[in-house]
Amino acid sequence: MKSKNPIRKTVAIIGFGLLGTSLGMALKGKNFVRVGWSRRPESRVQALKNKVVDKVFETPEEAVADADITVICLPVPMIIEFCAKFAKCWKKGAIVTDVGSVKEKIVKAVTPVLARKKVHFIGSHPMAGSEQSGADAARVDMYNRAIVFLTPDPKTPPRLVNEVAGMWRTAGAEVIKIDAKTHDMTVAHTSHVPHIISAIMTLTALGDAKSRSVREKGCAGGFRDTTRIASSAPQMWREIIENNSQPIIKTICEFERNLQEFKRNIGRAEYSKLEKKLETAKALRDSWLSRKS
After folding, report:
1. HEC letters along 21-49
2. CA torsion sign, 213 to 215 to 218 to 219?
3. CATH value at residue 73
4. pLDDT per residue as tens digits for the range 23-46
5. What are φ and ψ of residue 103, in 5° steps?
6. How confident is the model over 172-228, as pLDDT tens digits?
7. Residues 6+ apart with CB under 8 A from 285
8. What is the pLDDT of residue 134?
9. Which of 44, 169, 202, 260 could form an SS bridge with 230, CB 3.0 to 4.6 Å?
10. What share of the chain is helix, strand, coil (3-state, %, to 5)?
11. In terms of domains, do 81 and 117 share one?
12. Residues 163, 101, 278, CA angle at the centre, nearest 5°?
């Protein structure tokens, strides 16, 4: 007797930017029906033309109505606004997730709103992307071997968490479950403050108009590598920083202590101590790279 084909889940992708488009591409040909919506009509036309989804809708209400899993690929404030506005549009038992870089604020705002409609929110944050933005920068392999953090409410049934995890794994990602508060402090260290430092390095090196011309000639591979993410969308990063301000401030304080230590070592000609710090930093980064490869 032949086994029945597994039921194809419907995934609704809200927003055809870099991450939403990449997710649609990664799920193509897998066991999902892909539908979607984006505010701009031309984005919907392009997504359908490029087979990012199987069907697009003209309204968000239609897009989420029959979705088993909805992935909201919008900026952090818009994720919260979208869920509040369209909470009544999901069917009972539906799962909603997102790609927001901040989790505690989203989870606290969205979970109770959707729960009142018998809809489950399970926060996601794929550690993927680039300094580029928009659908044109999307890649089918964007999520290959990328970490995706899930921040489910402790009361969420494991079966539902596994459904969201399964979708991300189908896209190629490795899934890690973590609480929202720990997530926000983690990414403040590994993503948010590094972006701020990248911006500060750029401003420090090139912000002085009088010396900019000669300093630009002195910018080579090291400068390019350490400042790459300063080319990311400023408004998006303003929103991320605004919504994760306290973990970011704590991380900046930690960075300042390390920077002052370096400054003190140099000022006191303590170059052996400085070299040990550089050796430790090299060992930590090399160890991280070896685990990533």
Report:
1. HHHHHHHCCCCEEEEEECCCHHHHHHHHH
2. negative
3. 3.40.50.720
4. 999 999 999 999 999 999 999 999
5. -120, -40
6. 999 999 999 999 999 999 999 999 999 999 999 999 999 999 999 999 999 999 999
7. none
8. 84
9. 202
10. 55, 15, 30
11. yes
12. 115
Residue (of 22, 21, 58) closest to 37 by Cα position: 58
In a domain, 112, yes or no: yes
User: Largest Cα–Cα distance in the chain?
Assistant: 80
> Taken in order 190, 193, 197, 199, is the CA torsion positive or negative?
positive
Give me the sign of the Cα torsion angle 152, 158, 160, 165.
Answer: positive
Q: Residues in the chain, how many?
A: 293
Whether residues 205 and 260 share a domain: the answer is yes
Residues 149 and 208 in one domain: no
Sequential DSSP letters for 217-252? HT--HHHHHHHGGGGS-HHHHHHHHHHTHHHHHHHH
The DSSP 8-state label assigned to residue 87 in this structure reads G
Residue 33 lies in a domain: yes
> pTM higher than 0.90 for the full model?
yes
* Rounded Cα gap, residues 120 and 244, in angstroms: 23
Does residue 19 sit in the same domain as residue 96? yes
Domain that holds residue 277: 183-292
Kindly list the distances between the CA atom of residue 226 and the CA atoms of 151, 196, 202, 258, in Å, as whole numbers in the listed order.
30, 11, 9, 18
Q: Of 202, 196, 197, 182, give the one whose Cα is nearest residue 241.
A: 196
In the block, residue with structure tokens 């488009």: 21
Rounded to whole angstroms, how far apart are CA atoms 109 and 115?
11
Query: 2-30: b or e for each residue (b if 16 or more CB lie within 10 Å)?
Result: eeeeeeebbbbbbbbbbbbbbbbbbbeee
